[in-house]
Amino acid sequence: MKAIPAPQGLPLLGNTLQMPSRAPILFLEEMAGRYDEGIFQLDLVGRRVVFVHDPDLVAEVCDETRFYKGINPPLSIVRDFAGDGLFTARHDEPVWGHAHRILMPAFSQRSMKAYYPQMLEVAEQLIASWSRRQGEDLHVPDDMTRLTLDVISLTGFGYRFNSFDSPELHPFLRAMGGALTEAMHRNRQLPFVTKLKRKNEEAYQHDIKVMRDLVDDVIRQRRSTGAGGAKDLLGLMLEASDPKSGERLSDENIRNQVLTFLIAGHETTSGLLSFALYNLLRDPHALALAYDEVDRLLPGDEPPSYETVMKLDVIPRILEETLRIWSPIPAFAVNAFADDSIGGYPVAKDQPVVVLLPPLHRNPKAWERPDEFDIDRWLPEQKAQHHPGGYKPFGNGERACIGRQFALTEARLALAMILRRFAISDPSVYRMKIKQTLTLKPDEFTIRVRERRAHE
Ligand code: HEM
Q1: For residues 56-80, b (16+ Cβ closer than 10 Å) or e, as one string?
Q2: Is residue 290 within 8 Å of 318, Cβ to Cβ?
Q3: pLDDT on residue 456
Q4: In angstroms, rounded to a whole number, what is the distance separating the alpha carbons of residues 377 and 370?
């Protein structure tokens, strides 16, 4: 067996202090650049963690007969508030299967079509807001967050945040950002240090309470209006039972799922749309193709139909390539079922192995000209040749993202609506600065817009 390469660490703390608390992904990318083998290991507060970014090794750890989704730190810390919701449920918790089967119908193609009018309604609010603010610096991640939060809460739970009515982001978002950031910090703290930081603990508990109160409000509103029979996420959770076991979800689990969807259902899509606009501003050719496509398929001011949005071709390729170059979720973890080996390296039973997406998605073994933004990679003939382990923005197997189609439908629509209406520009020449709160965003990224043609 080969030895897994590892940088020198300190006694007790190992490599913990080398990993910065702000944007640890940048440090992990630097490590990945150092180890061409596509694998390395770190000692993080006494835990040995293996990282892989070689597509062959990734294909191996994506074999679900040998590896299962690991709920290790930081996800095990996120369980403090997301509990046994789908994202943070352990692989051996039966409630994962109950909830997964109950909720699957809410992510069918037919459901996407049913959500479409509400997706459109919120996208129109974004367009109206930008139309009023032409010539101003628009904070892209904030507005994409308004859009995606309002879409998931309206389609999933019939709940309105009305985020575009307020210049401030909703308090739920501040609490969520605080709790996710704290979870990330705790990931690199010895437990006794976490205990000593009383103020942080108080703020963490406060943030969790703000989020839980909001979730209770969402559920209370639904129960009081008695929207019985609604087939959205909340309707299914309150009324449906698992077709396999007949089990219903407990009230506690429903709260965990609502919070999970409020977070997982908007953070990532907002990052995707922000990075997509960033990429388009740096690729005039792709931008011209996108303008051309929306002018052809979405002429005039009529709201586009679901069928039209499904016909788009350039915009979906822009989104795929954005997910390759800037994956909003930068990593996911699996653990080995038994003592095993990958590519001749030993992996012990239950050993956490983290798939590092940025260096995987730019790995020259899987991608030609890996640093180049090239939407033609997603033409069908080229796509058929992609390395099977080279692209994993939505995770893997049965624990892969349940909201993938939802995110892509929403993002297609939003990007098409923006480009149909506005010419986008970046007069401040933004330089990428990553903000990490478990997911990635371009920090403080602003753009300006002006109408491309006169509107009523
Ligand atoms: C799981 C990415 C949008 C709900 C995941 C995972 C990834 C991911 C990588 C697996 C994480 C892991 O293995 O630890 C993304 C990206 C998105 C996106 C890149 C947008 C571009 C959404 C949306 C929803 C959603 C819109 C909900 C409507 C979930 C849930 C899980 C999940 C519930 C857990 C699934 C399970 O384990 O059963 N997502 N996601 N995601 N995602 Fe997404």
Answers
A1: bbbbbbbeeeebbbbbbbbbebbbe
A2: yes
A3: 44
A4: 11
Q: Of all helices (H) and strands (E), which one includes residue 27?
A: helix 24-34
* pLDDT tens, position by position, 130-159: 999 999 999 999 999 999 999 999 999 999
Q: How far, in Å, is the centroid of ligand 1 from the Cα of 425?
A: 30
For the cut 90, the answer to whether the pLDDT of residue 114 exceeds it is yes
Of ligand 1's atoms, which has the minimum distance to the CA of residue 89? 37
261 Cα–ligand 1 center, Å = 9
What is the H or E stretch that residue 441 is in? strand 439-442
Q: Which two tokens stand for residue 240?
A: 């449906």
The DSSP element (H or E) to which 154 belongs, if any, is helix 140-157
Nearest CA to ligand 1 atom 20: 269
- For ligand 1, whether the C-beta of 399 sits within 6 Å is yes
Residue 336 CA: distances (Å) to CA of 207, 214, 278, 340? 34, 37, 37, 7
268 is known as an active-site residue? yes
Query: Is 155 one of the catalytic residues?
Result: no
Give the Cα separation of 65 and 92 in Å (integer).
14
Q: Which of 27, 107, 337, 394 is catalytic?
A: 394
Q: What is the mean pLDDT of residues 322-334?
A: 97
Residue 408 CA to residue 317 CA, distance in Å, equals 11
C-alpha–C-alpha distance, residues 4 and 39, integer Å? 7
Amino acid identity at 52? V
Q: Which of 410, 433, 406, 442 is nearest to 138 (CA)?
A: 442
192 among known catalytic residues = no
What does the block give as tokens for 15? 């490599």
